[in-house]
Amino acid sequence: MSARSTTARRLAIVAVCLLSLVAACALAWWQWERYASAGGTFQNLGYVLQWPLFGLFPAFVFWRIRKLRRREREHEGESTEGRARAAPAAVPAPRPSARHGGPPPDGEDEEDRQLAEYNRYLAELNARDQEVK
Question: DSSP states of 60-77 as a string?
Fold first, then answer.
């Protein structure tokens, strides 16, 4: 991407952020007027506090994305330097699971038996249900 299009894109994003902040502040003012009126409620006051936060959200997202991209670029620079200096570490072989090698833990056979019995019961209920239909 060229520098010109990047600058135009950033200016457009900043304009959208400012526009959303202005619109949200206008809505907050409107809610404040409703709260100050005879029929105003605390819900209107809550909106007075919420609207500016909604308006700031696009600016926060823009800032957060820039920060994450900068961190990613720094990390890529460090990783390319690290690769040139050191050889990659060897990946250890996976350890055998205790569940697959050896006898099952105590109580597991009982649980398996109960589960099989329950599944048979459900199958029987399903068969009865199918007969009734």
Answer: HHHHHHHHHHHHHHHHHH
Q: In the predicted model, what is the mean pLDDT of the chain?
A: 83
The distance between the two most distant Cα atoms of the chain, rounded to a whole number of Å, is 77
CB within 8 Å of 62: residues ≥ 6 apart: 13, 14, 17
CB neighbour class for 55 (10 Å; exposed up to 12, middle 13-18, buried from 19): buried
Give yes or no for a contact between 56 and 94, defined as CB atoms under 8 angstroms apart: no
Count CB neighbours of 56 within 10 A. 16
CB-facing half-sphere around the CA of 42: CA atoms within 13 A: 0
Can you say how many angstroms the Cα of residue 28 is from the centroid of all Cα atoms in its chain?
A: 28
Give pLDDT tens digits for 15-66. 999 999 999 999 999 999 999 988 888 999 999 999 999 999 999 999 999 9
Distance CA 47, CA 45 (A): 5
